[in-house]
Amino acid sequence: MLKKRYLHSPVVSDLKDKMVFIGGPRQVGKTTLANQIGKADFKKFSYLNWDSREDRKKIIAGSFEADSELLIFDEIHKYKQWKNYLKGIYDKNKEKFAILATGSARLDVYRRGGDSLMGRYHYFRLHPFSLREAITEKKPTVKAMKELAFPEPGKESLSAFSDLFHFGGFPEPFIKKNEKTLRRFHNERIERLIKEDIRDLEQLKDLSALQVLVELLPQKVGSLLSLNSLKEDLEATHKTISLWMNVLERFYYHFRIYPYAASSIRSLRKEPKMYLWDWSELSDEGIKFENMIASHFLKLVHFLRDTEGWKAELFFLRDVDKRETDFLVTIDKKPWLAAEAKLSGNRHSPSLEYFSRKLKIPFSYQVVKNEGIDIWKCGVRIISAQKFLAGLV
What we know:
41% of the residues lie in helices and 19% in strands. By secondary structure, it is an alpha/beta fold. It folds into two domains: 8-125, Rossmann fold (3-Layer(aba) Sandwich), CATH 3.40.50; 131-391, no CATH class. The two termini are 22 Å apart.
């Protein structure tokens, strides 16, 4: 039996009120989630995939199965007039059936569809499996999230962490736990991302150069991202590199986090740091661990924003004196928690201590890959990732 994903209940709840759009990387489980919702929560539903010729005819003709309580439109954003189409279907039939749309591009920002759907939909971003989702179907309560209560890790948590670190959180390689599956997943995902998804929606002339960029990006993870250095590597203009990076971000290949601006710490407003949605592509253990932590924080921030309506954001900290801390989560622009990712050790980060004091950050953590660590030093909680990540989303 397939595991119930963490967004299942929030999506079902919101379908009673508006349309729901689910975006996320290719092969993250959007179609599976949509069909699970249809089977579990509706007496009858219709699934229509724009990539299917027969389904495409039904979509254009507006021909849906009678008595369907839910219409699922998969990859509908590939239809040029998709926004006007869904707006018309929804306005005419919102009392008859619910509408759920999924896509591998960011459905909240795509502008090729025409008229705005403002006020007619809720948008969710589906993430790969995290440690908490791998070990439990229980959604964290608001109280637990505010207090950041961490359960003691058992054998299941330790094993799941090891599998997640190696195979990543995308359902197919994570569930199968097979090296051949992982290698094929990497190759096929990148190939289809560029030669199918991006080719179908973006007017890019040089897809081969874009593929070279994708091969270069894993080497840039965790460090300040300079488009000028990429420009030299690819012999392309700054404008072209910027366009390519934005396209890859829209299609959930990578994400960027920016430095937090505050006069009290003389912060630097310079280049962002970049991470991949699939950390299993990385070979360096330290970079991979940092990316895994970054991905868990991004999932937390998106969950708080998409399901609870909190204005949660993810940053990093860096000042003119070159002090740096990997992550800062803010709520309503106010610092909430800061974290530094380290492979090992029980010595706290002086930069993390400094920023925590200057910015009055309520929670400060140094997250380490070593098992069995949970100690306090100078206001910083040094905690094992196996315990810390199980307390998130």
